[in-house]
Every structure is written in structure tokens, then in C-alpha cells.
Amino acid sequence: MIADLKSSLFPTPTEFIERQGSYLVNETPKVSFQEPSYKHLVSISNLALLNADPEHADIRFVQGEFTNPDAFKILCDSKGITIFTSTPRAGLFALHLLKQILDFVSKEIPCFEINDFPFLKRRGFMLDVSRCKVPTMESIFEFIDILSILRFNEFQLYIEHTFAFQNHRDVWKDSSPLSGDEIQKIDHYCRDRFIDLVPNLNSFGHFERWLRHKPYKKLAECPDGFRREEPFMVRDHGSVLKPNQDSLKFIDSLYEEYLPNFSSAKFNVGLDEPWELGQGWSKPIVEKEGKHTVYLDYLSGILKLVEKRGKSMEFWADVLLEKPENAQNLPASASPVIWGYEPEHPFKEQAKI
């Protein structure tokens, strides 16, 4: 049975050691915490628990020393289960794993020792909520619970137009947008589960759901549409903002309303796939200075808007990878993020550039 148990656990523990004997756990396990700050784990764990003193507890949390703050050790012997951690977040991970074990074996647990830690420091997931379907709050909370079980510690909601900006109803009115209050509730739910809800708002390209509306066409690189060959597309409205001060002022006003809903110190501003950059308003500047110089100048303007709000900026790296030597001209505080859809995408190779 122990082999079947080991193979059923996900994420797979770094080390699983079989021990002699077994322990019969209560139907609703009793738990004690050496460190009082861990007590809120009872309310957020997917394993139903009852608080108890150490003498009567099935599960005892003990402070341990680990070089990785997310590492933990679970020791099950004939006297009970002891969980060693150095942080509450690692304690929650241990409880998630213990829940899987109890679901598999019911009440009588074969004795074991598990030593586990995640290999990646940042483990993020981005959910697209701008392409035709915005999840309900209930679905988002359920999804965050799954992320917690899988030990993710960052979460982003990809947003183009699906936030209910107060002065831009025409853009989002038929899109079931998330409100500021809802974002704050999601942020709180994430924080309780040790997940950083990183704000994400595309700030240059992918603006077609704004620029198709007449009041915003003045901000478009190509207000009457554009054509490009690779990838091929023809549109009767723009998708990219003009790389100028008017656009930066407009983006600044969006940040002013959007960012206060998040507690994260990070911010993903997008800036990927500016399809028609250089075809319209910026064509003379691009012909003179080059597309990538114009792009980096706009990026620097966005960076100032982000940093004045105390955030660190992340942006998609696709344009930078077109001309990697421009990385030396990138502001040191701007963090490029490589993206790819296929399993065979050359992430490692691109990260070395």
C-alpha cells in the first residue's frame, strides 16, 4: 500500500521514507501549534481540524530550521504526526499533503517520514480573464484553493478591459468586469493562503477592445486599422497606443484607479505584441530611430509610472528578444518575462540572452 500511497501524492514529495508501524487518527484530526501565528491554518486548510493541546493532538506543529522557507518535514510514528516547519506557508503545504494521505488511507496511517520543498522560489500562474469569459468570484476562489494545494505563490489575472474603470463604461459594459471591491476580496483571499496577487494590466498593445470605440481612437497608433503579414491580420481598428505622452497620461489615470486594489509590490504591465507599431502615428520616429528604440523609450515612461507607486515592473520579453543586444539599454529595475505556449519553447536558451 505504501508504494501506491507514494505514487498518489502530488506534488510528488522530494523524499518519502517508509517507517515501521501505523497510527490511528481521529475522524477529525486534532492539531496543536508550538507557534501561535500558525493557528489560522485551521480556517484555511482543506483538511478539517480541531484545535487541541499537544498531549491530545493527532498532529503537532513544531518549529524547525530550514534553509528554504517553504520546506517542511512530516514524521508519522505510532504516537502521532509531527510537522516541522519554519513558516506558516510551509505548514499549509504540509497540511495539503497530509490531506491527500488521509484521503488515501482513511484512518490508519502507515508510519512514514516526508521531507519536501519546492525547487522554484517563484511559482506563478496567470489566468486570462479578458478573452470572452470572466470567472465568477466563487470560481476564482476555488481556483485559488487549487493553486494553494499545488504550492503556487503568485497569481495574476490577465486584464485588458475587464476591470470596471469608473469613467470607461463603454469599454467594459458587456464584459462582466471585475470591480475594485472584488479585486480587493481576491487579494485578501490570496494573502490568507500565502499567494501574491500580482496586478496585470496590458499597457501598450492588445488595446483593441478600447481603441475600437470612438472616444479612444485619438490614442491609437492606427485609428482606422492596420494590416500586417506575420502573423497575418487585418483589422479596422487599432490595437496599439501611440508611444507618446498622451498615452502615458491615459495609462497613468488607469493605474491610479486599478493599482490601489492590490497589496503586491509587483506589477505586470504587459507591453507585448505591439503589432502595428511604426505603421501609423509613430512611423516617422520609427524610421529615424528604429522600432526598438521607440519601444524602449515608451517602456521607460511606463516604468516611471509604476515606480512612483512603489511597485516593481514586470513586462513581456518578446519585443526585447527580437533584438537581444538592447537588453543593455533596459532600465535595471524593469524585469522581462519570457512567454511561450508550447512545451518545447526554448525558455532556458532565451533566459541566457
- Helical coverage, percent range: 25-40%
The CATH topology label of the largest domain is TIM Barrel
- Give, in order, the helices and strands: HEEHEEEEHEEHEHHEHEEHEHHEHEH
Low-confidence stretches: none
Shape, please?
Answer: elongated
Whole-number radius of gyration? Answer: 25 Å
**How many discrete structural domains?**
2
Provide the spatial order of strands within the biggest beta sheet: 1-7-5-6-4-2-3
Estimated structural class: alpha/beta
**Strand segment count:** 15
How far is the N terminus from the C terminus?
A: 48 Å
Output the CATH homologous superfamily of the largest domain.
Glycosidases
Strand content: 15-25%
CATH class of the largest domain: Alpha Beta
Largest sheet: 7 strands, mixed
- Write the CATH architecture name of the largest domain: Alpha-Beta Barrel
For the residues shown, what is the average pLDDT?
Answer: 96
Number of helices: 12
Put the structure in a nutshell.
With 353 residues, this protein is α/β, with parallel strands linked by helices.
Question: Which keywords apply here?
Answer:
alpha/beta; 3-stranded parallel sheet; 2 domains; TIM Barrel; 353 residues; 7-stranded mixed sheet; 12 helices; Chitobiase, domain 2
Structural overview:
This protein has 2 domains: 2-116, 2-Layer Sandwich (Chitobiase, domain 2), CATH 3.30.379.10; 124-351, Glycosidases (TIM Barrel, Alpha-Beta Barrel), CATH 3.20.20.80. The strands form 4 sheets. It has a 7-stranded mixed beta sheet with strand order 1-7-5-6-4-2-3, covered by helices on one side. Helix 4 runs parallel beside helix 6, helix 8 (245-258) packs parallel to helix 10 (291-307) and helix 9 crosses helix 10 (291-307). The chain has 353 residues and is α/β, with parallel strands linked by helices. It has helices at residues 2-8, 41-44, 88-105, 137-149, 169-172, 180-192, 208-211, 245-258, 283-289, 291-307, 318-322, 347-351, and strands at 15-24, 30-33, 50-51, 59-63, 72-77, 80-85, 108-116, 124-128, 154-158, 196-198, 226-229, 232-235, 266-268, 312-316, 334-337. Strand 11 (226-229) and strand 12 (232-235) form a beta hairpin. The protein is built from 12 helices and 15 strands.
